[in-house]
Amino acid sequence: MIHSGYVSSESYSLINSTGDLVSRHNMHGTPFGIGGSIKIHLSDHFRLGSEGYVSTLSYDNNGSFASVGWGGILADRIWQLDKIAPFIGICIGGGSFKNLTLNSNYGDDYIVESNLSYRKYSFMAVTPFVGMEYAITDKVRLVFKADYLMNVSNFQKDFLRGIRLFAGFSFYRLKD
């Protein structure tokens, strides 16, 4: 599945080794990403599975970016209404966040730069989601989904929060 949406962080400050303020940032914008899920029907209305995604946001027009990868175990409830099947669920797992902040434009060279910040940390993730599947055939469905990724264990000001919108396909293996 591919995804986009709108995400933002809180305002945060970067300081140098002597404690002086270097810059202030507030990331916001449209991320782009990819990922997917696998689900097993336990009944007509309940599914269990796993999912994983990576989402990247470029910001500040100078090569800065933030990237979040997350995944985990999911459970959802689905209702089959002819060709349309709405669903609601939750994923519980973990993830990793990376943020590279470049405070000015950099050339494509081998010179070591000092005016940048790189942060990486892990977190426990809880991700509620809602969506809809449309049956193209008995074995292929078009899927639309929206989620909200929550960092529940390692809150940081540069963490990206917001709604992501997904589109993709799911492939069913039917019982005989």
Offer a few descriptive terms.
176 residues; Porin; two-stranded antiparallel sheet; 0% helix; 67% strand; elongated
The mean pLDDT is 93
For the record, what CATH class applies? Mainly Beta
Largest sheet: 8 strands, antiparallel, barrel
Low-confidence stretches: none
Radius of gyration: 19 Å
- Roughly how many Å apart are the termini? 28 Å
- At CATH level 3, the topology is Porin
H/E topology pattern: EEEEEEEEEEEE
CATH architecture: Beta Barrel
Give me the side-by-side strand order of the main sheet: 1-5-6-7-8-9-10-12
Q: SS-based structural class?
A: mainly beta
Task: Please outline what is shown here.
This protein has strands spanning 2-8, 12-15, 21-25, 28-29, 32-41, 46-59, 64-78, 84-102, 116-135, 140-148, 150-151, 161-171. The chain is mainly beta. The model has no long low-confidence stretch (mean pLDDT 93).
